Amino acid sequence: MNGKIFLGCIADDFTGATDLANNLVRSGMRVLQAIGVPDAPLLADVDAVVVALKSRTVPAAEAVAQSLQALRWLQAQGAQQIYFKYCSTFDSTAAGNIGPVAEALMDALGTDFTIATPAFPDNARTVFKGHLFVGDQLLSDSGMRSHPLTPMTDANLVKVLQAQCSRKVGLIDHKAVAAGPAAIAQRIEALRAEGVGIAIVDAVSNDDLLRLGPALKGMPLVTAGSGVAIGLPVNFGLAPSSQASALPAATGTRAIVSGSCSQATQRQVAAFIAAGGAALAIDALRVADGADVVGEALAWARPLLAQGPVLVYSTADAATVQAVQARSGVQAAGDAVERTLAAVANGLVAHGVGQLVVAGGETSGACVQALGITQMQIGPQIDPGVPWCHAASPGLHIALKSGNFGTDDFFSKAFTLLQ
Ligand code: ADP
């Protein structure tokens, strides 16, 4: 453990943090993801740390406070550059939180200039003349127009960000980006001379992001979606390599806990059972009745663990879920099942499971919390958006799959990749 990291990242939500971590790993960095601001030092020797916050839609002052706390911890780990990560659709309201957090970080770092771009061409998010496109549509014509928390009704990011900032917002347009790092640096100097503090950057391809990378060398703060990450490792002398995703050797027995009811997860559960896997369905109605479902599941799993992966699932079709929700209420039914599956995950690990797949975003959050996981090293990608991770405490390989991710054979594929 050297205790010194190159890149310190602050992500405004959990899955966004994993997305960024995944891009950094694929570009050659060894990455640790922290859930919330750690109160302990780093548990691994890594090149970058991504601190996952839940600051996207909280009041701006709270987002600023959380982000500054993350900044202080990252600085204490020796971070040479800070990366503030937000959503590739620039999810924010007129009050923030992208602008207020970016400016607070600039103040704390004593820097007068940074960039901002959610461009992520691999995911069809491109920025041209300061306007964000989602696929072929302007952001303001996309589904984001009617997002329940952060409706995005203007695609002009210079205007959107200016409304959230006291500093002047400018644009590094595609002409400069296409001309390469020297032209970008020149444009930055020109904007600085005009008193611009934050510049939106055009980028329509990965090549644009790779040209942007060198121009960001030494910039104390970068703010972006996860796309810009692909151009940064080279500034620290790192190139893509399988070493970046290397995790400690997997040990222990294998299990899957699934609380996702998405179509994809339903197919994955069915495929696992069809292939002869040992599986136990949790009946949410019995959970609601207070039966000892956790004890039963652990007693069932224990003798089977030595033979191969076991699956404990509450995954069910829409009609089954609705019947439970009609009886207990949507929130209460969800919470009870999450608590049950988290207790099962915890019990399985206590019984020697060392390789755990969790299906479901909320279910993952509950399991990570129950297992007391606060730091995870990011390993190889099983399917886009889902890497294996290793938590040094409690000593566990874990993959957190959100609902619709993964191919039908995801569960068996995941364990094969780890061998
Ligand atoms: P996804 O990533 O697919 O959205 P989540 O874990 O985020 O999966 O959400 C699934 C929600 O459904 C959780 O709150 C979970 O507890 C709940 N749930 C899972 N199985 C059942 C079930 N059989 N009946 C009712 N609710 C369920």
CATH architecture of the largest domain, please?
3-Layer(aba) Sandwich
By CATH reckoning, the class of the largest domain would read: Alpha Beta
Characterize the largest beta sheet: strand count, sense, and whether it forms a barrel: 15 strands, mixed
Helical content stands at 25-40%
Strand percentage lies at 15-25%
State the total count of DSSP E strands: 18
Structural domain count? 2
Class of secondary structure makeup:
alpha/beta
Topology:
Elements: E1 7-11, H1 14-26, E2 31-35, E3 48-52, H2 60-76, E4 81-85, H3 98-109, E5 114-117, E6 125-128, E7 131-134, E8 137-138, H4 157-162, E9 168-172, H5 174-179, H6 181-193, E10 196-201, H7 206-215, E11 221-224, E12 253-258, H8 263-274, E13 278-281, H9 284-288, H10 293-301, E14 310-313, H11 318-328, H12 330-350, E15 353-359, H13 361-370, E16 375-383, E17 386-391, E18 396-401, H14 410-418
Parallel strand pairs: 1-3, 1-4, 2-3, 4-11, 5-10, 5-11, 9-10, 12-14, 12-15, 13-14, 15-18
Antiparallel strand pairs: 2-16, 6-7, 7-8, 16-17, 17-18
Residues 259-262, 265, 284, 314, 316, 320-321, 324, 333-334, 337-338, 360-363, 402-403 line the site of adenosine-5'-diphosphate.
Give short descriptive properties of this protein.
single chain; 419 residues; alpha/beta; Rossmann fold; Molybdenum Cofactor Biosythetic Enzyme, Chain A; 15-stranded mixed sheet; three-stranded antiparallel sheet; globular; binds adenosine-5'-diphosphate
Walk me through the structure.
With 419 residues, the chain is an alpha/beta fold. The protein has 2 domains: 7-242, Rossmann fold, CATH 3.40.50; 246-418, Molybdenum Cofactor Biosythetic Enzyme, Chain A, CATH 3.40.980. Helices cover 37% and strands 22% of the residues. The protein is built from 14 helices and 18 strands. The protein has helices at 14-26, 60-76, 98-109, 157-162, 174-179, 181-193, 206-215, 263-274, 284-288, 293-301, 318-328, 330-350, 361-370, 410-418; strands spanning 7-11, 31-35, 48-52, 81-85, 114-117, 125-128, 131-134, 137-138, 168-172, 196-201, 221-224, 253-258, 278-281, 310-313, 353-359, 375-383, 386-391, 396-401. It has a 15-stranded mixed β-sheet with strand order 9-10-5-11-4-1-3-2-16-17-18-15-12-14-13, with helices on both faces. It has a 3-stranded antiparallel β-sheet with strand order 6-7-8, with no helix packed on it. Helix 10 (293-301) runs parallel beside helix 12 (330-350), helix 11 (318-328) crosses helix 12 (330-350) and helix 12 (330-350) packs across helix 13. The longest helix has 21 residues, at 330-350. The two termini are 25 Å apart. Bound molecules: adenosine-5'-diphosphate.
